[in-house]
């Protein structure tokens, strides 16, 4: 098995352990909502970028069985949604705008730096017409949309009601 597949397996295990360790029990429902909301964003966006030929994922964790879906299952459907869970659950909502901006830049920067590292030193990601700043911008936009949907979900949910 290649280094890239071992990396994906290891990173998946780390993400699963971090979910169990750092998502409080009373926030499990919120974590699922965040996870699914982000997948709703990343699936069409990932398909679009791959179909346009801007980015490629040559090595996948799961075998490539569908010629119509060449996005990265690991990145689009698991790693980034896990990052979004932690982003929204630990968001500094009552801080000033500078702290919030730093939070956005830090989380989006982390994910972008990870992707750039993987693009340069592995065969997991290959930029064609894509650059690191497009990754950064799309990560920020995705996090804004996802967190907005989460706030909307929380606003409508009243604990203790049967609806």
TrEMBL record:
NCBIfam families: CBO0543_fam. The chain crosses the membrane at residues 6-24, 31-55, 75-92, 99-118, 130-150. It comes from Niallia taxi. Keywords: Membrane, Transmembrane, Transmembrane helix. InterPro entries: CBO0543-like. This is Uncharacterized protein.
């Amino acid at each position: 098995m290649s280094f890239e597949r071992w990396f994906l397996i290891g990173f998946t295990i780390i993400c699963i352990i971090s979910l169990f360790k750092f998502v409080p029990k009373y926030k499990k429902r919120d974590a699922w909502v965040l996870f699914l909301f982000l997948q709703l964003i990343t699936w069409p966006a990932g398909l679009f970028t791959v179909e346009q030929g801007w980015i490629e994922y040559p090595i996948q964790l799961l075998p490539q069985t569908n010629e119509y879906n060449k996005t990265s299952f690991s990145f689009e459907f698991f790693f980034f949604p896990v990052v979004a869970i932690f982003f929204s659950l630990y968001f500094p909502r009552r801080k000033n705008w500078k702290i919030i901006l730093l939070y956005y830049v830090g989380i989006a920067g982390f994910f972008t730096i990870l992707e750039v590292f993987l693009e340069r030193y592995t065969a997991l990601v290959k930029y064609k017409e894509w650059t690191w700043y497009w990754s950064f911008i799309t990560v920020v936009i995705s996090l804004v949309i996802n967190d907005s949907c989460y706030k909307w979900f929380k606003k409508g949910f009243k604990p203790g009601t049967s609806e």
